[in-house]
Amino acid sequence: MSLVPLRCLPLLSLALLAGCGGDPPAPAAEPAPAPVAVAPAGIDWSRCKFPGVTLPVPGKVIVVDGGQSVPDAEPGRESIRRVEIVVPGKVALLLTAPDATVWLLRPSPETELVGVFASGDAPQRISGQRLGAHLLARSRAMGDDCGRYWMAADAGATLEQASLQVFGREHSAVYRLHGGLAVIGKAEEPPVR
Fold first, then answer.
1. How far is CA 79 from its chain centroid?
2. Which residues contact 26 (CB under 8 A, 6 or more apart)?
3. What's the CA gap between 56 and 137, in Å, rounded?
């Protein structure tokens, strides 16, 4: 027998004895629990903010309720809702309707539109002249949580919240369309609230 394996025998014996005694091995670490996705509480307003606009917007915030479908509207087609704005100074509009709508806006020469937000359950569009640079059209049908018909009882948030989130201030008046038209700022057509 060679001397090298005999000299290693005591070291081998010590190594085996060290493995047999002492404290038990530490238990394996438990895996970290998987993160739980938490849905944000309330409405996601991120898609309903005007890019580059400092809140609150200047001037008056006015709501226009499109109400139910325009008489003689074809099912599945856009309704045209006309809004004439005869208010001097800066005005922001929150337009809301349950069905697909084209909002045709006609501001007077004294009116400066600082923001127009059209919101509904179905797609919305904004049309007209001198509309300003800040236009947003959002709908629940297109996946926008903040796009909805704000006058519905089941809207999930209030009209006041919508005004505050979008424009940074509460609205000063609510107008309702009659026969597809609302005139804002004339004594003959007062706001409904």
1. 23
2. none
3. 19
Phi, psi angles (nearest 5°) of residue 162: -60, -45
Residue 152 within any structural domain of the chain: yes
Which range among 24-28, 86-90, 139-143, 159-163 shows the weakest confidence by mean pLDDT? 24-28
As given in the structure block, the two tokens for residue 183 are 């005139």
Query: Helices (DSSP H) in the chain: which residue ranges?
Result: 3-20, 159-167
Domain annotation covers residue 173: yes
Angle at 183 between CA 125 and CA 114, to 5 degrees: 55
Any domain includes 122: yes
Domain count for the chain, please give it.
Answer: 1
User: Domain span at residue 149?
Assistant: 61-69+76-184
> Three-state DSSP class for 192?
coil
| pLDDT tens track for 66-103 | 988 766 777 778 999 999 999 999 999 999 999 999 99
Residue 85 lies in a domain: yes
Does the model's pTM come out above 0.70? Answer: yes
Give the per-residue SS3 of 46-87: HHHCCCCCCCCCCCEEEEEECCCCCCCCCCCCCEEEEEEECC
Amino acid at 99: D
